[in-house]
Amino acid sequence: MEYLYLLQQALIWIITVFWIYQIIISVCSLIKLKDKPLIEKKNHRFMAIIPAHNEEAVVADLIKSLKNQDYPKDLLDIYVIADNCTDNTAEVAREAGAIVYERFDPTKKTKGYALNWFLQQKIEEDAPYDAFCIFDADNIADSNFIKNMNKKLCQGEDVVQGYRDIKNPTDNWITAGYAIFYWTMNRFYHLARYNLGLSPLINGTGFMVRFDVIKPEGWNTKTLTEDIEFSLKRIIKGKKLGWAVDAIVYDEQPLGFKQSWKQRTRWTVGHIQCIKEYTKPLAVAVKENKTMMNFDGLLYIMGSIPMFILTLILLGLNFIIYAANGMTSADLIMNCIRYFVPTFLLPIGTAVVIMLLDKREIKPMIKGLLCYPLFLGSWLLINFKCLFKRDTSWDKIEHVRSVNKLSQVKAEVNIKN
Protein backbone atom coordinates (compact mmCIF):
# COMPACT_ATOMS: atom_id res chain seq x y z
CA MET A 1 0.00 0.00 0.00
CA GLU A 2 2.90 2.33 0.69
CA TYR A 3 4.16 1.92 -2.88
CA LEU A 4 0.66 2.46 -4.24
CA TYR A 5 0.38 5.65 -2.22
CA LEU A 6 3.71 6.93 -3.57
CA LEU A 7 2.59 6.13 -7.12
CA GLN A 8 -0.70 7.94 -6.48
CA GLN A 9 1.12 11.07 -5.28
CA ALA A 10 3.52 10.96 -8.24
CA LEU A 11 0.61 10.79 -10.68
CA ILE A 12 -1.16 13.66 -8.92
CA TRP A 13 1.94 15.82 -9.32
CA ILE A 14 2.44 14.87 -12.98
CA ILE A 15 -1.18 15.58 -13.91
CA THR A 16 -1.32 18.79 -11.85
CA VAL A 17 1.89 20.20 -13.34
CA PHE A 18 0.68 19.35 -16.84
CA TRP A 19 -2.59 21.25 -16.38
CA ILE A 20 -0.92 24.19 -14.64
CA TYR A 21 1.32 24.49 -17.70
CA GLN A 22 -1.71 24.43 -20.01
CA ILE A 23 -3.50 27.09 -17.94
CA ILE A 24 -0.46 29.39 -17.96
CA ILE A 25 -0.17 29.03 -21.74
CA SER A 26 -3.91 29.66 -22.19
CA VAL A 27 -3.78 32.92 -20.22
CA CYS A 28 -1.34 34.24 -22.81
CA SER A 29 -4.22 34.34 -25.32
CA LEU A 30 -5.34 37.51 -23.50
CA ILE A 31 -2.15 39.32 -24.51
CA LYS A 32 -2.52 41.59 -27.53
CA LEU A 33 0.70 41.75 -29.49
CA LYS A 34 1.69 44.01 -32.35
CA ASP A 35 1.17 42.52 -35.79
CA LYS A 36 4.26 41.16 -37.50
CA PRO A 37 5.89 43.55 -40.00
CA LEU A 38 5.61 42.87 -43.73
CA ILE A 39 8.77 41.68 -45.40
CA GLU A 40 7.25 42.14 -48.87
CA LYS A 41 4.19 43.68 -50.50
CA LYS A 42 2.76 41.37 -53.11
CA ASN A 43 -0.46 39.71 -54.14
CA HIS A 44 0.50 36.04 -54.32
CA ARG A 45 -1.09 33.44 -56.55
CA PHE A 46 -3.18 30.83 -54.72
CA MET A 47 -4.80 27.46 -55.28
CA ALA A 48 -7.95 26.78 -53.28
CA ILE A 49 -8.09 22.98 -52.99
CA ILE A 50 -11.30 21.19 -52.02
CA PRO A 51 -11.13 17.40 -51.48
CA ALA A 52 -14.74 16.21 -51.83
CA HIS A 53 -16.39 12.80 -51.56
CA ASN A 54 -20.10 12.87 -52.50
CA GLU A 55 -20.60 16.52 -51.54
CA GLU A 56 -23.03 17.65 -54.25
CA ALA A 57 -25.32 19.26 -51.66
CA VAL A 58 -22.77 21.77 -50.33
CA VAL A 59 -19.71 22.12 -52.58
CA ALA A 60 -21.23 24.84 -54.79
CA ASP A 61 -21.75 27.10 -51.76
CA LEU A 62 -18.05 26.95 -50.88
CA ILE A 63 -17.03 27.63 -54.49
CA LYS A 64 -19.34 30.63 -54.54
CA SER A 65 -17.79 32.00 -51.36
CA LEU A 66 -14.32 31.58 -52.86
CA LYS A 67 -15.36 33.32 -56.06
CA ASN A 68 -16.61 36.22 -53.92
CA GLN A 69 -13.24 36.74 -52.25
CA ASP A 70 -11.96 40.30 -51.86
CA TYR A 71 -8.88 39.38 -53.86
CA PRO A 72 -7.79 39.63 -57.52
CA LYS A 73 -9.75 36.96 -59.42
CA ASP A 74 -6.84 36.07 -61.71
CA LEU A 75 -4.68 35.13 -58.70
CA LEU A 76 -7.00 32.48 -57.27
CA ASP A 77 -7.80 29.16 -58.95
CA ILE A 78 -10.34 26.84 -57.36
CA TYR A 79 -9.74 23.08 -57.62
CA VAL A 80 -12.10 20.33 -56.53
CA ILE A 81 -10.76 16.79 -56.08
CA ALA A 82 -13.85 14.65 -56.69
CA ASP A 83 -12.57 11.71 -54.68
CA ASN A 84 -14.24 8.34 -55.30
CA CYS A 85 -17.55 10.11 -55.90
CA THR A 86 -20.72 8.22 -56.82
CA ASP A 87 -22.94 11.31 -57.01
CA ASN A 88 -22.86 14.54 -59.05
CA THR A 89 -20.14 16.32 -57.08
CA ALA A 90 -17.90 16.74 -60.15
CA GLU A 91 -20.70 18.13 -62.34
CA VAL A 92 -21.96 20.50 -59.63
CA ALA A 93 -18.44 21.77 -58.99
CA ARG A 94 -17.78 22.39 -62.70
CA GLU A 95 -21.05 24.25 -63.08
CA ALA A 96 -20.12 26.40 -60.08
CA GLY A 97 -16.84 27.37 -61.77
CA ALA A 98 -14.21 25.07 -60.24
CA ILE A 99 -11.51 23.08 -62.02
CA VAL A 100 -12.31 19.44 -61.25
CA TYR A 101 -9.93 16.49 -60.92
CA GLU A 102 -11.65 13.13 -60.57
CA ARG A 103 -9.90 10.39 -58.62
CA PHE A 104 -10.95 6.74 -58.24
CA ASP A 105 -9.06 4.51 -55.82
CA PRO A 106 -11.35 2.66 -53.37
CA THR A 107 -8.34 1.26 -51.47
CA LYS A 108 -7.11 4.75 -50.48
CA LYS A 109 -10.03 6.87 -49.38
CA THR A 110 -8.72 9.46 -46.90
CA LYS A 111 -8.16 13.14 -47.57
CA GLY A 112 -4.42 12.70 -47.17
CA TYR A 113 -4.27 10.35 -50.17
CA ALA A 114 -6.40 12.68 -52.28
CA LEU A 115 -4.24 15.70 -51.46
CA ASN A 116 -0.99 13.87 -52.20
CA TRP A 117 -2.38 12.57 -55.52
CA PHE A 118 -3.39 16.06 -56.61
CA LEU A 119 -0.37 17.97 -55.30
CA GLN A 120 2.10 15.55 -56.89
CA GLN A 121 0.60 16.44 -60.27
CA LYS A 122 0.97 20.15 -59.57
CA ILE A 123 4.55 19.66 -58.41
CA GLU A 124 5.41 17.74 -61.59
CA GLU A 125 3.76 20.50 -63.67
CA ASP A 126 5.79 23.11 -61.77
CA ALA A 127 2.46 24.94 -61.45
CA PRO A 128 2.88 28.73 -61.06
CA TYR A 129 1.44 29.07 -57.55
CA ASP A 130 2.92 30.65 -54.45
CA ALA A 131 0.64 28.90 -51.95
CA PHE A 132 -2.48 26.80 -51.57
CA CYS A 133 -5.37 26.74 -49.11
CA ILE A 134 -7.23 23.59 -48.10
CA PHE A 135 -10.97 23.55 -47.44
CA ASP A 136 -13.54 20.88 -46.66
CA ALA A 137 -16.41 20.83 -49.15
CA ASP A 138 -18.98 21.82 -46.52
CA ASN A 139 -17.14 25.03 -45.62
CA ILE A 140 -18.00 28.65 -46.30
CA ALA A 141 -15.01 31.01 -46.54
CA ASP A 142 -15.15 34.57 -45.26
CA SER A 143 -14.73 37.09 -48.07
CA ASN A 144 -11.38 38.24 -46.63
CA PHE A 145 -9.92 34.76 -46.15
CA ILE A 146 -7.44 34.77 -49.06
CA LYS A 147 -6.51 38.43 -48.51
CA ASN A 148 -5.61 37.72 -44.88
CA MET A 149 -3.64 34.60 -45.81
CA ASN A 150 -1.78 36.64 -48.41
CA LYS A 151 -0.84 39.05 -45.62
CA LYS A 152 0.62 36.14 -43.66
CA LEU A 153 2.71 35.15 -46.68
CA CYS A 154 3.96 38.72 -46.89
CA GLN A 155 4.96 38.47 -43.21
CA GLY A 156 7.12 35.45 -43.99
CA GLU A 157 4.78 32.71 -42.72
CA ASP A 158 4.92 29.33 -44.50
CA VAL A 159 2.10 27.27 -42.94
CA VAL A 160 -0.83 29.08 -41.35
CA GLN A 161 -4.05 27.87 -39.75
CA GLY A 162 -7.09 30.10 -40.14
CA TYR A 163 -9.88 30.63 -37.62
CA ARG A 164 -12.19 27.61 -37.80
CA ASP A 165 -15.70 28.67 -36.87
CA ILE A 166 -18.90 26.63 -37.05
CA LYS A 167 -21.65 26.94 -39.65
CA ASN A 168 -24.39 25.40 -37.48
CA PRO A 169 -23.61 25.90 -33.74
CA THR A 170 -27.22 26.09 -32.55
CA ASP A 171 -28.69 23.09 -34.42
CA ASN A 172 -28.48 20.79 -31.38
CA TRP A 173 -26.29 19.90 -28.39
CA ILE A 174 -23.83 17.99 -30.58
CA THR A 175 -23.10 20.87 -32.98
CA ALA A 176 -22.96 23.21 -29.98
CA GLY A 177 -20.37 20.90 -28.38
CA TYR A 178 -18.22 21.06 -31.50
CA ALA A 179 -18.57 24.85 -31.63
CA ILE A 180 -17.51 25.36 -28.01
CA PHE A 181 -14.62 22.93 -28.45
CA TYR A 182 -13.29 24.76 -31.51
CA TRP A 183 -13.81 28.22 -30.00
CA THR A 184 -11.78 27.04 -27.01
CA MET A 185 -9.02 25.59 -29.19
CA ASN A 186 -8.89 28.73 -31.32
CA ARG A 187 -8.21 31.00 -28.36
CA PHE A 188 -6.62 28.89 -25.62
CA TYR A 189 -4.46 26.71 -27.87
CA HIS A 190 -3.70 28.32 -31.23
CA LEU A 191 -3.79 32.03 -30.35
CA ALA A 192 -2.07 31.51 -26.99
CA ARG A 193 0.83 29.64 -28.56
CA TYR A 194 1.13 32.03 -31.46
CA ASN A 195 1.39 34.93 -29.00
CA LEU A 196 4.17 33.14 -27.10
CA GLY A 197 6.19 32.22 -30.18
CA LEU A 198 5.27 28.55 -29.87
CA SER A 199 3.55 26.63 -32.66
CA PRO A 200 -0.18 26.30 -33.28
CA LEU A 201 -1.41 23.25 -35.19
CA ILE A 202 -3.19 22.72 -38.48
CA ASN A 203 -6.80 22.03 -37.65
CA GLY A 204 -8.26 20.03 -40.54
CA THR A 205 -9.55 22.79 -42.79
CA GLY A 206 -9.10 26.48 -43.56
CA PHE A 207 -5.30 26.49 -43.62
CA MET A 208 -2.63 27.77 -46.00
CA VAL A 209 0.70 26.22 -47.07
CA ARG A 210 3.42 27.87 -49.13
CA PHE A 211 3.76 25.71 -52.25
CA ASP A 212 7.54 25.38 -51.90
CA VAL A 213 7.10 23.67 -48.51
CA ILE A 214 5.62 20.49 -49.96
CA LYS A 215 7.62 20.30 -53.21
CA PRO A 216 10.42 18.05 -51.82
CA GLU A 217 8.14 15.17 -50.75
CA GLY A 218 4.53 16.08 -51.51
CA TRP A 219 1.71 15.79 -49.01
CA ASN A 220 3.26 12.70 -47.44
CA THR A 221 1.05 11.62 -44.54
CA LYS A 222 -0.05 8.15 -43.44
CA THR A 223 -2.34 8.55 -40.40
CA LEU A 224 -6.07 9.26 -40.15
CA THR A 225 -5.30 12.74 -38.80
CA GLU A 226 -3.19 14.10 -41.64
CA ASP A 227 -3.49 17.66 -40.30
CA ILE A 228 -1.94 16.85 -36.91
CA GLU A 229 0.66 14.62 -38.56
CA PHE A 230 1.73 17.38 -40.96
CA SER A 231 1.93 19.83 -38.03
CA LEU A 232 4.08 17.49 -35.92
CA LYS A 233 6.46 16.84 -38.82
CA ARG A 234 6.96 20.60 -39.19
CA ILE A 235 7.56 21.02 -35.45
CA ILE A 236 10.09 18.17 -35.42
CA LYS A 237 12.00 20.04 -38.14
CA GLY A 238 11.96 23.15 -35.94
CA LYS A 239 9.46 24.94 -38.22
CA LYS A 240 6.85 27.07 -36.49
CA LEU A 241 3.28 27.17 -37.80
CA GLY A 242 1.33 30.42 -38.02
CA TRP A 243 -2.14 31.55 -36.97
CA ALA A 244 -4.50 33.94 -38.77
CA VAL A 245 -7.41 34.97 -36.55
CA ASP A 246 -8.96 37.07 -39.36
CA ALA A 247 -8.89 34.30 -41.99
CA ILE A 248 -12.22 32.73 -41.05
CA VAL A 249 -13.79 29.57 -42.41
CA TYR A 250 -17.18 28.23 -41.32
CA ASP A 251 -17.41 24.46 -40.97
CA GLU A 252 -20.54 22.25 -40.79
CA GLN A 253 -20.69 19.76 -37.92
CA PRO A 254 -22.66 16.47 -37.85
CA LEU A 255 -26.15 16.50 -36.35
CA GLY A 256 -26.39 12.84 -35.33
CA PHE A 257 -24.62 11.30 -32.35
CA LYS A 258 -23.73 8.17 -34.33
CA GLN A 259 -21.94 10.20 -37.01
CA SER A 260 -20.24 12.32 -34.37
CA TRP A 261 -19.09 9.18 -32.54
CA LYS A 262 -17.58 7.77 -35.76
CA GLN A 263 -15.87 11.05 -36.62
CA ARG A 264 -14.33 11.53 -33.19
CA THR A 265 -13.33 7.86 -33.11
CA ARG A 266 -11.40 8.43 -36.33
CA TRP A 267 -9.70 11.46 -34.78
CA THR A 268 -8.76 9.49 -31.65
CA VAL A 269 -7.37 6.59 -33.70
CA GLY A 270 -5.40 9.12 -35.75
CA HIS A 271 -3.99 10.60 -32.56
CA ILE A 272 -2.92 7.15 -31.37
CA GLN A 273 -1.23 6.57 -34.74
CA CYS A 274 0.62 9.90 -34.36
CA ILE A 275 1.66 8.96 -30.80
CA LYS A 276 3.23 5.74 -32.07
CA GLU A 277 4.87 7.41 -35.05
CA TYR A 278 6.08 10.76 -33.71
CA THR A 279 6.61 10.61 -29.92
CA LYS A 280 10.20 9.42 -30.28
CA PRO A 281 11.11 11.93 -33.07
CA LEU A 282 9.58 14.74 -30.97
CA ALA A 283 11.61 13.66 -27.93
CA VAL A 284 14.77 13.56 -30.05
CA ALA A 285 13.95 17.04 -31.40
CA VAL A 286 13.58 18.33 -27.82
CA LYS A 287 16.99 16.91 -26.93
CA GLU A 288 18.74 18.20 -30.05
CA ASN A 289 17.06 21.58 -30.57
CA LYS A 290 16.40 22.45 -26.92
CA THR A 291 13.50 24.77 -27.79
CA MET A 292 10.21 25.37 -25.99
CA MET A 293 8.42 24.88 -29.31
CA ASN A 294 9.64 21.29 -29.58
CA PHE A 295 8.89 20.66 -25.90
CA ASP A 296 5.37 22.04 -26.30
CA GLY A 297 4.83 19.80 -29.33
CA LEU A 298 5.91 16.79 -27.27
CA LEU A 299 3.53 17.80 -24.49
CA TYR A 300 0.69 18.02 -27.03
CA ILE A 301 1.15 14.43 -28.14
CA MET A 302 1.67 13.24 -24.55
CA GLY A 303 -1.32 15.23 -23.32
CA SER A 304 -3.92 13.34 -25.28
CA ILE A 305 -4.20 9.57 -24.81
CA PRO A 306 -1.18 9.16 -22.45
CA MET A 307 -2.55 11.73 -20.00
CA PHE A 308 -5.97 10.08 -20.25
CA ILE A 309 -4.40 6.72 -19.34
CA LEU A 310 -2.55 8.25 -16.37
CA THR A 311 -5.81 9.77 -15.14
CA LEU A 312 -7.55 6.38 -15.36
CA ILE A 313 -4.71 4.78 -13.40
CA LEU A 314 -4.96 7.52 -10.77
CA LEU A 315 -8.71 6.98 -10.38
CA GLY A 316 -8.12 3.24 -9.98
CA LEU A 317 -5.42 3.83 -7.35
CA ASN A 318 -7.70 6.19 -5.46
CA PHE A 319 -10.40 3.53 -5.32
CA ILE A 320 -7.95 0.83 -4.12
CA ILE A 321 -6.41 3.09 -1.45
CA TYR A 322 -9.77 4.34 -0.21
CA ALA A 323 -11.10 0.78 -0.03
CA ALA A 324 -8.00 -0.41 1.86
CA ASN A 325 -8.46 2.38 4.39
CA GLY A 326 -11.96 1.18 5.19
CA MET A 327 -13.94 3.72 3.22
CA THR A 328 -17.69 3.08 3.30
CA SER A 329 -19.98 3.21 0.28
CA ALA A 330 -21.28 6.59 1.44
CA ASP A 331 -17.71 7.95 1.68
CA LEU A 332 -16.97 6.69 -1.81
CA ILE A 333 -20.10 8.34 -3.20
CA MET A 334 -19.22 11.67 -1.55
CA ASN A 335 -15.70 11.51 -2.95
CA CYS A 336 -17.09 10.84 -6.43
CA ILE A 337 -19.44 13.81 -6.08
CA ARG A 338 -16.59 16.07 -4.98
CA TYR A 339 -14.65 14.95 -8.06
CA PHE A 340 -17.39 14.98 -10.69
CA VAL A 341 -19.18 18.23 -9.78
CA PRO A 342 -16.13 20.45 -10.49
CA THR A 343 -15.39 18.29 -13.54
CA PHE A 344 -18.92 18.98 -14.77
CA LEU A 345 -18.92 22.71 -14.01
CA LEU A 346 -15.40 23.62 -15.19
CA PRO A 347 -16.03 23.04 -18.94
CA ILE A 348 -19.22 25.14 -18.75
CA GLY A 349 -17.41 27.96 -16.95
CA THR A 350 -14.52 27.86 -19.42
CA ALA A 351 -16.95 27.94 -22.35
CA VAL A 352 -18.78 30.97 -20.94
CA VAL A 353 -15.46 32.80 -20.51
CA ILE A 354 -14.52 32.00 -24.11
CA MET A 355 -17.85 33.26 -25.42
CA LEU A 356 -17.59 36.47 -23.41
CA LEU A 357 -14.04 37.08 -24.68
CA ASP A 358 -15.16 36.47 -28.26
CA LYS A 359 -18.28 38.63 -27.76
CA ARG A 360 -20.71 35.84 -28.65
CA GLU A 361 -24.33 35.72 -27.60
CA ILE A 362 -24.73 33.21 -24.77
CA LYS A 363 -28.53 32.89 -24.75
CA PRO A 364 -28.81 30.84 -28.02
CA MET A 365 -26.17 28.46 -26.65
CA ILE A 366 -27.67 27.76 -23.20
CA LYS A 367 -28.70 24.20 -24.05
CA GLY A 368 -25.35 23.53 -25.69
CA LEU A 369 -23.48 24.89 -22.66
CA LEU A 370 -25.41 22.67 -20.26
CA CYS A 371 -24.77 19.62 -22.46
CA TYR A 372 -21.10 20.43 -23.12
CA PRO A 373 -19.82 18.16 -20.31
CA LEU A 374 -21.86 15.35 -21.89
CA PHE A 375 -20.17 16.05 -25.24
CA LEU A 376 -16.72 15.91 -23.63
CA GLY A 377 -17.71 12.89 -21.53
CA SER A 378 -18.70 10.95 -24.64
CA TRP A 379 -15.27 11.78 -26.05
CA LEU A 380 -13.68 10.20 -22.97
CA LEU A 381 -15.69 7.05 -23.67
CA ILE A 382 -14.42 7.12 -27.24
CA ASN A 383 -10.84 7.41 -25.98
CA PHE A 384 -11.41 4.47 -23.63
CA LYS A 385 -12.89 2.33 -26.40
CA CYS A 386 -10.00 3.13 -28.74
CA LEU A 387 -7.49 1.86 -26.18
CA PHE A 388 -8.77 -1.64 -26.93
CA LYS A 389 -10.51 -1.50 -30.32
CA ARG A 390 -9.46 0.72 -33.21
CA ASP A 391 -11.37 0.90 -36.44
CA THR A 392 -9.14 2.46 -39.08
CA SER A 393 -11.81 2.53 -41.79
CA TRP A 394 -12.97 5.88 -43.15
CA ASP A 395 -16.68 6.74 -43.00
CA LYS A 396 -18.17 9.76 -44.73
CA ILE A 397 -19.85 12.44 -42.61
CA GLU A 398 -23.03 13.64 -44.28
CA HIS A 399 -23.16 17.38 -45.00
CA VAL A 400 -26.53 18.87 -45.85
CA ARG A 401 -26.51 22.49 -44.67
CA SER A 402 -26.61 24.47 -47.91
CA VAL A 403 -25.99 28.18 -47.29
CA ASN A 404 -26.13 30.62 -50.21
CA LYS A 405 -25.18 33.77 -48.32
CA LEU A 406 -22.28 34.41 -45.96
CA SER A 407 -24.56 36.69 -43.92
CA GLN A 408 -26.69 33.63 -43.02
CA VAL A 409 -23.67 31.94 -41.48
CA LYS A 410 -22.54 35.03 -39.59
CA ALA A 411 -26.05 35.40 -38.13
CA GLU A 412 -25.81 31.87 -36.70
CA VAL A 413 -22.44 32.13 -34.97
CA ASN A 414 -23.87 34.57 -32.42
CA ILE A 415 -21.25 37.31 -32.54
CA LYS A 416 -22.49 40.57 -31.10
CA ASN A 417 -22.33 43.68 -33.28
Write the layout of secondary structure elements.
Layout: H1 2-27, E1 46-52, H2 59-67, E2 76-83, H3 89-96, E3 99-103, H4 111-125, E4 131-134, E5 140-141, H5 145-154, E6 159-166, H6 173-196, E7 207-210, H7 211-214, H8 226-236, E8 242-251, H9 257-289, H10 292-302, H11 305-324, H12 329-357, H13 366-386, H14 406-412
Parallel strand pairs: 1-2, 1-4, 2-3, 6-8
Antiparallel strand pairs: 4-7, 5-8, 6-7
Keywords for this entry:
single chain; 417 residues; alpha/beta; Spore Coat Polysaccharide Biosynthesis Protein SpsA, Chain A; 14 helices
Please explain how this structure is put together.
The protein contains 14 helices and 8 strands. With 417 residues, it is α/β, with parallel strands linked by helices. It has an 8-stranded mixed sheet with strand order 3-2-1-4-7-6-8-5, sandwiched between helices. Strand 1, helix 2 and strand 2 form a beta-alpha-beta unit. The mean pLDDT is 90.
